[in-house]
Design a protein that fits this description.
Mean pLDDT: 86
CATH superfamily of the largest domain: Bira Bifunctional Protein, Domain 2
CATH topology of the largest domain: BirA Bifunctional Protein, domain 2
Strand order of the largest sheet: 1-5-6-10-9-8-7
Radius of gyration: 35 Å
Number of strands: 10
CATH architecture of the largest domain: 2-Layer Sandwich
Shape: elongated
Oligomer: single chain
Distance between the termini: 83 Å
Order of helices and strands: HHHHHEEHEEHEEHEEEHEHH
Length: about 350
């Protein structure tokens, strides 16, 4: 048929060389034969000059040629890409039998090293390690902890909300590890001593605050518990971590879930830091009777204390780190300083 045989012959003459073609060459051929101004679409423009009786056969022949060229180009393209992938896999093969003599030894991240030390310390004091979800609903994160509906901590600028639907508790990234207290007191009966360590999330970032950081949270619930038990526990922890010379202070504070409440500071120079002043490492207090009532615990029979400390700040205090962002930046120059941590 007029024109079709010439285009088919031109295509057939190129096929033997396509095994060695690259993607750019195939793209040029696709444009030449199949593009809007290509040879095969050009054949369809000749359809008006074909006798009516021959038009069906002419159109079918052009369509068959189009499918033949498309299929061949797709097949060659797939072959080229498969060969490229095999070549890449071959060149990137990792020989696990290679000697590790020149490899750099790994070490614990300073956060993990201090976390393990704290967990061992509290297990030695009779605490059980507990867990809780990082994604929780608003009742566990706020309401059950006696945080009012209009409390600033619930505002969008402080809390990462994941779901907010009318008539249902909002789902949030927990803003503190205190949510585990509610899960623990609902799921088990006192007395108990529990410790939880995990990530928390807040819309906050500067040299001493991060949008994601790690907290260590303790909860003791028993008969006859007093604030003196809380102070003794925290003095034991801080002096075990920083040495018996560490100077601490408790400042009166307010938290909806504890009453009375305090914040605990460590004197920087007493733990070897070359700067004056105090660093606050966390809050603590006696569990608020309203919180106990929310989980069905009789506050006349049982009392408890709770504390929550920022592990990142405790690491900063131990190693003299001035910017909290260094702990999660992944800078090997910074991390190499902590080789040998166990």
């Amino acid at each position: 048929m007029s024109g079709i045989d010439e285009v088919r012959a031109a295509w057939a003459s190129l096929v033997p060389g396509l095994d060695a073609a690259d993607e750019n060459h195939l793209a040029e051929l696709r444009s030449r034969f199949l593009g809007k101004k290509g040879e095969i679409p050009g054949l369809m423009r000749l359809l008006g000059s074909v006798p009516p009786a021959e038009k069906p056969a002419f159109g079918a022949a052009v369509q068959a040629l189009r499918l033949e060229v498309e299929s061949a180009l797709d097949a060659f393209l797939e072959s080229i890409r498969s060969r490229a992938l095999l070549d890449r896999l071959e060149s990137e093969t990792l020989d696990l039998s290679l000697s590790g003599e020149n490899s750099e030894p790994g070490t614990l991240h300073p956060l993990l090293a201090l976390r393990d030390e704290i967990l061992d310390l509290f297990v030695g004091m009779g605490f059980e390690i507990a867990d809780a979800p990082e994604v929780d609903d608003e009742w566990f994160n706020f309401s059950a902890l006696n945080v009012p509906d209009d409390h600033p901590a619930r505002d969008m600028q402080d809390t990462f909300f994941l779901e907010r639907e009318p008539g249902r508790p909002a789902v949030v990234l927990r803003t503190h590890t205190s949510n585990y207290q509610i899960h623990a007191m609902r799921d088990r009966k006192p007395p108990f001593r529990l410790l939880h360590c995990g990530e928390v999330y807040r819309c906050d970032a500067d040299a001493t605050h991060a949008p994601m950081f790690c907290q260590v949270e303790g909860l003791v619930l028993d008969k006859g518990i007093a604030f003196s038990h809380l102070k003794a526990t925290l003095f034991t922890m801080v002096r075990a971590l920083y040495g018996p010379q560490a100077i601490l202070r408790f400042r009166p504070s307010f938290f909806p879930f504890t009453e009375p409440s305090a914040e605990m500071d460590v004197d920087c120079r007493s733990v070897g830091l070359d700067r004056d002043g105090w660093m606050e490492i966390g809050g603590c207090g006696m569990v608020n009777p309203k919180v106990l009532a929310n989980v069905g615990v009789d506050s006349e029979e049982f009392q408890g204390f709770a504390f929550g400390f920022g592990l990142d700040r405790m690491v900063m205090l131990r190693h003299g780190i001035k910017d909290i962002g260094l702990l999660t930046a992944g800078d090997m120059r910074f991390l190499r300083q902590f080789r040998g941590l166990a």
